[in-house]
Design brief:
By secondary structure, the protein is α/β, with parallel strands linked by helices. The chain has a single domain, classed as Maf protein. The protein contains 6 helices and 5 strands; from the N terminus they run αβαβαααβββα. It has a 5-stranded mixed β-sheet, with helices on both faces. The chain is globular, with a radius of gyration of 15 Å. It starts with a helix and ends with a helix.
Length: 165
């Protein structure tokens, strides 16, 4: 995957958000701020992007965006339940129209028998309503998994905006 492909998707998303007068925020774990980096590389993104919470550790997920310790113990940070709570917490902190959360195992370590390297969950909320939770297993090295995750996150919001929820 090339940088230009992600940049084009980010430009398209920012353009759509501005035209629809929507704001977005992100809660990122395995991508470590990469989603925010692509969004903010687009001139004018400050009109629609409120910010990103890079909650790489469980401690920061709990402190910054109110992810529950009970949920983390029961389901783990790489789960549909976690990204849903991450989305809700980020949305509550920023009052954005749309919130997206990404959590996964980029590798090369961290895998479990049920969650191999490349396992990623992405959730999207619109005005506090859960729109989509996706479960993916991306191939490749650590950078590949992170880039595929951002590509899927950008694409997911674009597709949802095209449908107008």
């Amino acid at each position: 995957m090339q940088y230009n492909e992600l940049k084009i998707l980010a430009e398209k998303l920012v353009d759509m958000l501005i035209k629809k007068n929507y704001t977005i925020t992100a809660a990122e774990s395995c991508t470590g701020g990469l989603f925010a980096s692509y969004i903010t590389s687009v001139a004018g993104s400050s009109e629609c992007f409120k910010g990103s919470f890079v909650t790489y550790s469980n401690e920061m997920k709990m402190k910054m965006i109110n992810v529950s310790s009970n949920m983390l113990q029961k389901h783990g940070a790489v789960s549909s339940e976690c990204v849903t709570e991450m989305c809700r917490g980020a949305m509550l902190q920023t009052s954005s129209d749309i919130s997206i959360a990404i959590s996964g195992i980029a590798g090369p370590s961290g895998a479990t028998p049920n969650k191999p390297v490349g396992t990623v969950y992405i959730a999207v909320l619109y005005k506090a309503h859960l729109i989509k939770v996706g479960h993916y297993i991306f191939e490749g090295n650590r950078d590949d998994v992170r880039n595929y995750s951002v590509k899927e996150a950008l694409s997911s919001v674009i597709k949802l905006l095209e449908k107008e929820f």
